[in-house]
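Recap quiz, item 2
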Amino acid sequence: MTDALEKDPLVLFMPSGKRGRFPVGTPVLEAARQLGVYVESVCGGRATCGRCQIEVQEGNFAKHGIISSNDHISPVGPKEKRYAEVRTLPEGRRLSCSASIQGDLVVDVPQDTVVNAQVVRKAASDRVIERNPAVHLCYVEVDEPDMHKPLGDLDRMKVMLEKDWGYSDLQVAPYLYPEVQKILRKGNWTVTAAIHRDSPTSRPTIVALWPGLHNEAYGLACDIGSTTIAMHLVSLLSGRVVASSGTSNPQIRFGEDLMSRVSYVMMNPDGREAMTKAVRQAVSELTDKVCAEGGVARTDILDSVFVANPIMHHLFLGIDPTELGQAPFALAVSGAVSCEAKDIDLALNPGARTYLLPCIAGHVGADAAGATLAEGPHRQDRMMLLVDVGTNAEIVLGNSARTVAASSPTGPAFEGAEISCGQRAAPGAIERVRIDAATLEPRFKVIGVEPWSDEPGFAEAAEKTGITGICGSAIIEVVAEMYLSGVISADGVVDGNMAERSPRILPNGRTFSYLLHDGAQKITVTQNDVRAIQLAKAALYAGIKLLMEKLGVDSVDTIRFAGAFGSFIDPKYAMVLGLIPDCDLAEVKAVGNAAGTGALMALLNRGHRREIEETVTRIEKIETALEPHFQQLFIDAMAMPNKVDPFPKLSAVVTLPERKILADGDGGEGGGRRRRRSRD
Amino acid sequence: MTDALEKDPLVLFMPSGKRGRFPVGTPVLEAARQLGVYVESVCGGRATCGRCQIEVQEGNFAKHGIISSNDHISPVGPKEKRYAEVRTLPEGRRLSCSASIQGDLVVDVPQDTVVNAQVVRKAASDRVIERNPAVHLCYVEVDEPDMHKPLGDLDRMKVMLEKDWGYSDLQVAPYLYPEVQKILRKGNWTVTAAIHRDSPTSRPTIVALWPGLHNEAYGLACDIGSTTIAMHLVSLLSGRVVASSGTSNPQIRFGEDLMSRVSYVMMNPDGREAMTKAVRQAVSELTDKVCAEGGVARTDILDSVFVANPIMHHLFLGIDPTELGQAPFALAVSGAVSCEAKDIDLALNPGARTYLLPCIAGHVGADAAGATLAEGPHRQDRMMLLVDVGTNAEIVLGNSARTVAASSPTGPAFEGAEISCGQRAAPGAIERVRIDAATLEPRFKVIGVEPWSDEPGFAEAAEKTGITGICGSAIIEVVAEMYLSGVISADGVVDGNMAERSPRILPNGRTFSYLLHDGAQKITVTQNDVRAIQLAKAALYAGIKLLMEKLGVDSVDTIRFAGAFGSFIDPKYAMVLGLIPDCDLAEVKAVGNAAGTGALMALLNRGHRREIEETVTRIEKIETALEPHFQQLFIDAMAMPNKVDPFPKLSAVVTLPERKILADGDGGEGGGRRRRRSRD
């Protein structure tokens, strides 16, 4: 007997690497389940749903001591053959419910996104999202009614869901009570039930029913930003993203930035309702858009996950955000929210569910939680800085031992507001800038124009677009280049002395500007523009520094820029300006919409919901406004890159200017005055 | 130390009889909780809700070895004094949260219905309903927002609900998200939360919130009958029934009996919707009525429990009942239903819940389950027969070892339909009848008339009402009296030979009638009337007998008549006619609306929900139509009281006529023919 067991075939599943011995004849699906390898199945082993596909890897896997061969798996049987005829099964693929183990095997659970991928989507950060969605499709064959056993239709179905799928104590979405009879008869006593179970302490609930085999279910992952709403439509069964789209947040008509929207609520009796309606309407229209793009019916969407900043989070839930506009910035609800999609007026499947990630603090929202989940400072040992820059910068710093978070009031400068020639990223906007340190002459690139401004054909190409302004991200670059070329001092003063060397330095009242382009429109960077960027970057850096001090660290190992801003700026210039602390430049990465990636993770794996809920309770929140030291850090951070902090790693790759003192003491404003005085 | 413990005061709680020793200074409420004695408290020991009142019994309770005295409880302290001043505390009452144990005590937990009664309502059967409602009011004081601890308002409230009341992992009714902020501020950071937790496997859910202390919560218990809807409005805190009322089921306009309503659904495309709307509307109007009567706001109603026959159950839930009108009589839903009140269009508190008891079988509904719960055959060792007579009789028979149930198609005769002079119970209807066996002269009582028909003043009194017909229950009595006086034979044939003895026996075509009253209207009981009653009672008895045979018993120990019918008929006459098997007459009891009592029990104690859910799975359902033996039992039961079954206990108190054979063989119909032939 022991002998026989030792001779049981050895089966290795890839890519999980889980392995075990199983008696000859064990279905491969059964072996996977016993080992905890996630292989989807809707039909419960009837070889009809095709979700449980696997592939045998042939060869001698000496490292694992396995010679794997297609001869070591049972031949294609009649059920599998029928499936392959009706539905087509790709070459080499087998249905693991029907194929059984006959000898040693290396089994690949396909990683592609078309069918049953355990690994379903490479997030921006190249991490893998394991699937374990909150909604599970279960096909069952139900006994017909029997006068001798007067259990109801629904109750007989529950019996089979327990027998075949192990779900006991099932709740039922009430809208199904009037439907179950028709559905069972239409399916000739076969039915697919969608069962929602979010947390282990929730009772599983039947949220949808379809006659017969229903082999697809979708979910929405959505990031509601102040400016933009972004949405993914994803197959909950394969993990495949079938459509992604975005739309403007229509609340912009009530106010560009968050605080003006809060003011609108405070000053208009029905302001809150109007804004809730507007954002829900936009989410609904975006749902239409991704459904059309993906060819998916709304009724096939069974789950949805949202992230948002605190004010959007509150407005989306119908909560008055006024309290968030004033100290102590009290959230009405900070924990994760779980409800039905219809509770937030979202018409998906009538039983569809909604989950909102928790907020971290009054200014650090569910979007920051999503980004944290996606980037995972709490999952690793290195010190990670995660920054999401908007009107407020949300900052998370830490590692698996300890994580802290704060928001810092960067203001709208990074978004191009308050910048004299700022404009949004559109054709005609300057997006890249270089300044020759010797001549102080610039060259630049314009959105919609292929050549740089100093390359042949630029003028002709730029005629179509015009040269209309500087886009949000380029403002970082131009100010950094001005600093590197000596146009401005470390304290941010445009050096009027340079006017002697270059006609690009123009007097502008009592200060000076840099003329970036002289055409139909004069595009200049003024002293005020530089000041606005300095204020914004000082706020961001001071917030980061505060968190570093809390953790007692002098440097960070790796930096993640989340959000659109991070995707467009060059990490080198961000560091030259001192937005972020010194770090190996290769370790500064833009991760795109990390908040949306976090939403996607929580959609595809309910374990990630528990992970972020638990993580948020452990994140220590720092309120910058309450930290007496913040003011000094802010002042130090007005200088470029910083008045007191060294940037050794940056200095190794970029030659930073010698510190040129145009004014003593406190940098910017004082410097300006001093210089003006010296010119009087 | 051991010595000290032995000298700890001994406290005995009445009426539970639970006792224990507690250190001097232990609050009485705490002692009660440790012993599992149910004492309500909303404020959590702050001496503000007044729900935890107790009374000290003074005296020497030798049996218990306790000398109890008001000196053995702490004197009234400042908090209790303040409560007594503001709210008034009845003489002798103490707040158990504030009063502490100082010596041996006998403590009475008041049984009255005004405050905090553990025993809250005597059901018709004199049993006691212990309280353990699914909704619990919990007052908490919530920390104010703190920038250093950015938990949301809701989340800080949850912290206190866990700390003070032990509720962890709380869910929240989504409508509260936008409300919680305002409510907490309005209550100056104090709040009362209503927490719903039905079964131990459900997550507790916050279903309602009020600023400050909210000291009352109500529930509805409702029985939806085909003809009448009955409702109780009950305090969930004290158990007091504050209003009870009834209304006609407006579905009557779609059809008098259940089957004609099913036909209406089958023949009208929007018939199901119309009937669902009608019954929900009636429940809503009845809710208004009990709320007005009890002076209760709808928003203070947090829970509701419904019972109904299977067709009403389905229509109320919006389920097409067509399947119930044809074999195999398949219920769409048989198990208990738990949902929100708003799911069935019932506007109570927005978070209010609804529970429907399970159905036993396609013809044995949640009403029968309610009656079973109320009367409890499954809770006792004696063999109990529980009968609810309507168009279908629902029959439950059994004891704690085994219980069986069936329905039997009695038809509408017992409700007065198909009876030539039948009418509903209203002034002018004959309600009691006696027939002199010697003279065959009747005397009777008329609804709305005080004297019997042979007493002085009857004629004058009856002038106001008239004498218009025989009400449903009296038809049992008159047929039984006709049998006892020899007007009809044991086979139910009106004896034409009697016409020679009395002018009351009138020929009526080929058969004879009995003239009960000769006035403005001739009120007669025809041969067809007797046949209708015989058919109905034979169906009922045969169903009962079938269940007795299933259990292998020859007799039952006790009989319960549920429903209006049972309240009006005389058990003796029911037995004389053979509606029910032989039994000690003192053991035949009418229990009124037992189904409604069952709903009330399930409302006041969620343990009763589990009890009936579990009981229903154990009840064996017998489908009379499928039992070959049923036909013979039915034929035997056509005779009075029965062709083959003896009635020894009945015979001991009522002289049953000698068996008079007017026709051989199979009783009724054959007898009639034979007699007619003999007169030809």
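Chain A touches chain B through 54 residues (CB under 8 Å).
Residues 506 and 512 of chain A are 5 Å apart (CA to CA).
End of item.
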